[in-house]
Design goal:
The chain contains ten helices and two strands. With 231 residues, the protein is mainly α. The chain folds into two domains: 64 residues, Winged helix-like DNA-binding domain superfamily/Winged helix DNA-binding domain (Arc Repressor Mutant, subunit A); 131 residues, Up-down Bundle (Four Helix Bundle (Hemerythrin (Met), subunit A)).
Length: 231
């Protein structure tokens, strides 16, 4: 295993500093000079570490103001997923299908918990989104934004911020790759029917039915991602 560079060691120590001081996004970090003194490191190594951490939203460098704890957004994670899937797809490997399988495992594993007790207000949001899908289906295609909003709203009752970010990251990655690679589109009325069934199952507090409905929804996506047979 390669030995970490000075900059990589400083990255690790800055993360530890954030944890030890219980800093939150937007909180100020020590100045560049203070970090140099604290870690007994040179300016070049400290700057390299800060730039690397900024790339993954751990820190935010504001020119003329200083360095702060970043948003900690998962957007770099989503970008990494999208790029990996795109590269593998173009090499003839099932990168896109693999990405969807991971998302399916998460959603099918969670929808049963949602069915155990979804608030009425969340059900109204979901029903409104299905109604919007049906309006869009009349134009020939359900908007990705509406589909995405449905899947995020579905898990709102779990009140898990990290979960919402992870699911949104997977969706963002799939959306990015779909635009680049064009995996085709499902019949919009089938899409509406599948989402309507998910809502019906959740409203009935039927976890088994909800999981089955989610699996059926992903079956349609999986079929569209399978490579066409060579004749």
């Amino acid at each position: 295993m390669a030995r970490p560079t000075m900059a990589q060691d400083i990255e690790r120590r800055i993360k530890e500093l954030i944890l030890e001081r219980r800093l939150a996004p937007g909180d100020a970090l020590p100045t560049e000079a203070e970090l140099m003194e604290l870690f007994e490191a040179g300016r070049v190594s400290v700057r390299e570490a800060l730039k690397s951490l900024q790339a993954v939203n751990v820190v935010e460098i504001r020119r003329g103001f200083g360095t702060f704890v970043g948003s900690l957004s998962l957007s770099p994670f989503a970008e990494g997923l999208a790029f990996r899937a795109a590269v593998r797809h173009r090499q003839g490997e099932p990168g896109l299908a693999e990405l969807m399988k991971v998302r399916e495992a998460l959603e099918a594993g969670l929808v049963g918990a949602v069915a155990a007790g979804v608030p009425d207000e969340d059900l109204e949001v979901l029903r409104a989104l299905v109604a919007k899908m049906e309006e869009e289906a009349g134009t020939g295609r359900v908007a990705r934004g509406t589909d995405r909003a449905f899947h995020l709203a579905l898990y709102a009752s779990l009140d898990n911020h990290l979960l919402s970010e992870v699911l949104d990251a997977f969706w963002a990655a799939m959306d990015r790759v779909r635009e680049d690679l064009d995996d085709g589109h499902q019949d919009p009325w089938v899409t509406c029917a599948q989402h309507r069934e998910i809502v019906a199952a959740v409203a009935a507090a039927d976890g088994v039915r909800a999981v089955k409905a989610m699996r059926t929804h992903f079956d349609g996506i999986r079929i569209r991602l399978e490579p066409s047979p060579v004749l």
